[in-house]
Specification:
Length: 386
């Protein structure tokens, strides 16, 4: 179908919750996408950090095809090898506890919130200014952004918003606190790294008061920052973490992973999901997790991230560059609209990037990106200079 026909169908039948760009993508491979006119684009967003292994990675495709031909669904009333193996792999790769599999990042955070409230019934959840944890009611209540929350009030009670300062976090956590929930790098708000001092203050405060420290690694995990999980670079180990986005290698899946202390906090019947841990998504995730754990790839992420950040910093309209690994944010000059720049990059330069606000770009290429592709992306951005 043509783009115009798809837009007509959208106007007639799709609830208008998205502002879509006027491009129809029909296939992808590695770091490239092709539209319906067979024009190639460089993808430096990776489906918002979903395609860490790249589009249509042959090992992921093979795993999906093989599993889809055998068994697609049975529910969690029965065992499947893929779900149990993925749970084992996730636990061994991180906190060593147990795993609840689900279908998305918001669902993973909902499970984490229930875990915290089961650990300390009725307890308060401390979240940070500028956080984003999802759009379902619990996750939205943990997302202190007025534009996202206000239309849907009243929200879930018991959330306390804290400024991003070590002293503020320490003060906010008390005997009534069930958990501190935070992103090591706030991706949706503009790629804003949290300081190690803040993370350590949260860890110390939770230890002091018996609260749970939860890291939302939905965007920072799966090798995105140069280690499999971002917490590995901080010296601060959470009690639980959430994962999704790139976990499925392109398929929808999420996970809550606990440390040993919280492994048996949720009990039979207290949480569940019909589709969670389906064999096809788990088969894809097992391969994606294996690929993203490879030491050579993680070293490559660090090297490519340094190259990309240095090149971006040389652009005349870039004020500063922040992030870690291949999770990169660029703050633009006050007279440059990030939203307009991202639109022009797509339509004029065939480069897929994202504006997280009026003044900043977010770039998250697949982790397999090459030096030549990074240089080409920066060259395309340079052509957009005012």
């Amino acid at each position: 179908m043509s783009l115009a026909e798809l837009q007509a169908l959208e106007r007639e039948y799709a609830i208008p919750t998205y502002v879509r760009n006027p491009v129809q993508f029909v296939r992808g491979q590695g770091v490239s996408l092709w539209d319906d006119a067979d024009v190639e684009y460089l993808d430096f967003l990776a489906g918002i950090s979903v395609l860490n292994v790249g589009h249509c990675h042959p090992r992921v495709v093979a795993a999906v095809q093989e599993q889809a031909a055998k068994l697609t669904h049975v529910s969690n009333l029965y065992y499947t090898e893929q779900a149990m193996r993925l749970s084992e792999a996730l636990a061994h790769s991180s906190l060593g506890g147990k795993v609840f599999l689900c279908n998305s990042g918001a669902e993973a955070n909902e499970a984490a919130l229930k875990l915290a409230r089961r650990h300390r019934p009725g307890g308060e959840i401390v979240v940070l200014r500028d956080a984003f944890h999802g759009r379902t009611y619990g996750a939205l209540s943990a997302t202190p952004q007025e534009a996202k929350q206000a239309p849907f009030a009243p929200l879930v009670p018991g959330f306390f918003v804290c400024e991003k300062e070590p002293e503020a976090v320490s003060y906010a956590v008390g005997p009534q606190t069930a958990a501190v929930l935070l992103e090591p790098i706030q991706g949706e708000s503009g790629v804003l790294p949290l300081s190690r001092e803040l993370l350590q203050a949260a860890r110390d405060a939770c230890d002091r008061e018996g609260a749970v420290l939860i890291f939302d690694e939905i965007q920072t995990g799966m090798g995105r920052t140069g280690t499999l999980w971002a917490y590995e670079q901080t010296g601060v180990v959470p009690d639980a973490l959430t994962s999704a986005k790139s976990l499925g290698g392109g398929l929808p899946i999420g996970a809550l992973v606990t440390g040993k202390k919280l492994a048996d906090t949720l009990r039979p019947g207290e949480h569940g999901s019909t589709f969670a841990g389906g064999p096809v998504a788990c088969a894809a995730a097992l391969v994606a997790l294996e690929i993203c754990s490879e030491p050579e790839l993680l070293a490559h992420v660090v090297a490519m991230g340094e190259r990309f950040a240095a090149a971006l910093a040389e652009l005349p309209f870039v004020v500063s560059v922040r992030g870690r690994g291949l999770l990169v944010g660029a703050e633009l000059a006050p007279d440059v609209s990030a939203i307009e720049l991202a639109r022009r990059a797509l339509l004029e330069q065939r480069l897929v990037v994202n504006a997280t606000g009026p003044g900043s770009l977010r770039m998250e290429p697949p982790l397999i990106v090459t030096e030549a592709q990074i240089d080409e992306a920066v060259a395309r951005l340079a052509r957009l200079a005012p």
